[in-house]
Amino acid sequence: MLTIKNVNLEVDKKEILHDFNLNIKDGEIHVIMGPNGVGKSSICKAIMGDKKYHLTNGSIYYNDKDLSKMSTTDIAKLGIMLISQSPVAIPGVSNADMLRNSIASKTGKQVNIYEFNKKITEVVKKLDLPTSFIHRSINDGMSGGERKKNELMHMWMLEPNFIILDELDSGLDVDALKICSKSLNEYYEKYKPSILIITHHTQILDNIKPNYVHILTNGTITYSGDLSTAKSIEANGFNDYLGQIK
Ligand SMILES: Nc1ncnc2c1ncn2[C@@H]1O[C@H](COP(=O)(O)OP(=O)(O)OP(=O)(O)O)[C@@H](O)[C@H]1O
Ligand SMILES: [Mg+2]
Question: What is the CATH number of the domain that holds 126?
């Protein structure tokens, strides 16, 4: 379970979040929506231990682990994965090499190459990516949509139990969005991870059903509802929710 309690978050000496609270239980799917620049990506980065986003108050725990005191590598080893809004390219490091090393580092066991190759080939095919992506440098030279699919390939191979999707849907064409949201739902049905989805749209929620939809405005969650809240925001914008108290 992820427990974010009374968090004040500062970036570059500017307070972005104030008294931010969020609890995500095992297997729950939560969505955060909110206007541009309110701090959605910032809280994702803080969860992942990016020290540029530092807590001046409160705590972020995953079960009994204090994430604010851990490195990003150790947080990833707990099985928490962020698919970021703009996935970074790492020229010279192939998907396959990174994934084999990461799996070995997480499990402490040598990777069975035959099983690894079999699984990754199935995964790229399901994501409608060419098999050449297996050996391409991470996100390097990939289009915006390809990067998102590439990150989903990492998800299937690394088998995280807590997934943060920061605008997975941005940059995806209609067909790619369907493939990605179906793939995400298939992963959810198989492994029942917890999922935090940041989005401005509801299409991604056609395949994966959230337990809660939260609205982030003024540095904190001001309203928590369900899928109907997301639909109402898509239709009417945030005005009805600005300044509301949950
Ligand atoms: N590394 C940084 N240095 C300086 N300011 C930052 C940094 N990261 C975020 N900010 C600022 O913090 C605020 C929140 O940014 P954030 O990226 O979290 O917004 P967001 O809610 O994800 O917006 P969007 O919907 O556009 O993705 C913005 O004003 C942004 O400029
Ligand atoms: Mg963002």
Answer: 3.40.50.300
Looking at the CA of residue 85, tell me the nearest atom of ligand 1: 27
Q: Which ligand is nearest to the CA of 34?
A: 1
Ligand 1 pocket by C-beta < 6 Å: which residues? 11-12, 16, 34, 36-42, 52, 85
Within 8 A by CB and 6+ apart from 202, the residues are: 227, 230, 231, 234
Which range marks the domain in which residue 23 is found?
A: 2-241
For 106-138, write each residue's pLDDT tens digit. Answer: 889 999 999 999 999 999 999 999 999 999 999
Angle at CA of residue 245, ends 239 and 246, nearest 5°: 105
- Residue 217 domain flag: yes
Euclidean distance between CA atoms 83 and 148, whole angstroms:
8
- The answer for residues whose C-beta is within 8 angstroms of residue 135's C-beta and 6 or more apart is 94, 95, 96
pTM: 0.95
Sign of CA dihedral 98, 99, 104, 105: positive
In this structure, the residue with its CA closest to atom 3 of ligand 1 is 12
Contact (CB, 8 A) for 28 and 194: yes
Is there a domain that residue 170 lies in? yes
Token pair of 104 as six digits = 């070995």
